[in-house]
């Protein structure tokens, strides 16, 4: 709801969309009914903005509770976490540090967790600034940057 035009542009460009809950609350602190509402409202916000129902679910901070895990599955959302997280949520990380971490920690099948908002106040700008170097560095190491659906569909 905060940026439906951005969400629409992402969908139109063919990128994968995911549900990250409605208000990014820590699910471990919520009762089951509130967790289900977070998952449902998050999915509805994505679908309302884009016309596309989210295919994936990632809980805030990667912390599932049972209600979120079950509800995302009931909605047909594949539950996905990450294997590379270069950002500093509690402290600043420069674009150069972020790019170096991704390039150093990357491995075949890596799912990289990056944020364009939230976390430390410098994180969004550092993320956008780091992206060209991240992509170039990964390609230099022989990796391809692919949509999540291609990565997961190719998994054994």
UniProtKB/TrEMBL annotation:
Pfam families: Polysacc_deac_1. The keyword Hydrolase applies. InterPro entries: Glyco_hydro/deAcase_b/a-brl (IPR011330), NODB_dom (IPR002509), Polysacc_deacetylase_ArnD (IPR050248). PANTHER family: 4-DEOXY-4-FORMAMIDO-L-ARABINOSE-PHOSPHOUNDECAPRENOL DEFORMYLASE ARND-RELATED, GLYCOSYL TRANSFERASE-RELATED. Keywords: Hydrolase. Coiled coil: none annotated. Transmembrane segments: none annotated. Residues 1-146 form the NodB homology domain. It comes from Candidatus Segetimicrobium genomatis. The keyword ATP-binding does not apply. GO terms for biological process: carbohydrate metabolic process. GO terms for molecular function: hydrolase activity, acting on carbon-nitrogen (but not peptide) bonds. This is Hydrolase.
